[in-house]
Amino acid sequence: MQKKVESRGEVVLSAEKDTCCLWPEYYLQFPCFSELTVRAECYPRKLLHAKQTGKSIVLIHGLTDSPFYMLAIAKYFHENLGYNVYLPLLHSHGLKNPEGMAGVSLVHWKQNVRFAIRTAAESSDRVSIGGFSTGGALSYYFGCTDSQVTGDLYLFAAAFGIYGGGIPEFFLRIPFIRLLINKQPLKTLVGRHPYRYDQVPLKSAGELARLISENDKLLKSPGNIMHAKRIFAAWSEYDRVIDVNKLSYISKLPTAGQFVSFVIPKAERVNHACVVLKEHVYAINSRQGDFVLEEANPRFAEMMSELSKFEAAS
Questions:
Q1: Could you say which architecture CATH assigns to the domain 18-312?
Q2: Which helix (DSSP H) or strand (DSSP E) does residue 56 occupy?
Q3: What is the dihedral of CA 214, 43, 264, 311, to 10 degrees?
Q4: How far is CA 219 from CA 19, 128, 135, in A?
Q5: CA-closest candidate to residue 138, choices 119, 160, 121, 118
Q6: Nearest-CA neighbor of 300 among 136, 157, 192?
Q7: pLDDT tens digits, residue range 113-144?
């Protein structure tokens, strides 16, 4: 049973060995977020050690998601691998009244991640970065472009392309289509899911398409510094959201031994969002025996074990 504890202006969900806490400085940096505007379980988080540690990691959630999706992985990095962990909340996400994500912007997402990287670098000598889906794509972008990311890259079902041959992705990049998207009526996004919105607005998908386009250019750049970095990538062959072939392509970019993959077989039917979940997700106000919204990854413990081996070899 978790218990809410308030201490020094931070809200902590306390349980045995639970060190997750609100990241109040994040609200100061981005006033569009506050304890009044952000949903109860969707807040930006930081997991810090009492003593100085030489390594930190920034973990980024996916499209319409919140930092909760990276929480189980964040706890593993913190408790088992000794990292300070920072989990930013992307612009237009996690809000009680998202207004259809009308103000969503890749520019703002980059500002969110850049602040997290800078904060991590202030307290650590070595900064790694990782993320889920859109967060994985942002991780790759910053691994290539931000000199403060000096550690490794961790990709979880990273969105380097959209499932279905890229046609929807190309469609979303067309300026005229993007203009129509901006004029779409706002939709109610908050439903019974406690940690993300119930829909993916076209405008937010368009911003992801822009990011995919930028990463495509980086992938083809012969001087890309990410080609020299170590990469751990996990995905499910059953994924029907992202183009997993793009992840296989990335495996050919680094030099030998620098890319480690953890691939969940198609027969296990692990969906996109489930890759990063240690436990099942249920609807708000659900009761025992209710339908599971998103199932846990049955290979989560094995995935973390392989990630630990990868991290130890650095």
A1: 3-Layer(aba) Sandwich (3.40)
A2: strand 55-60
A3: 80
A4: 37, 19, 17
A5: 160
A6: 157
A7: 999 999 999 989 999 999 999 999 999 999 99
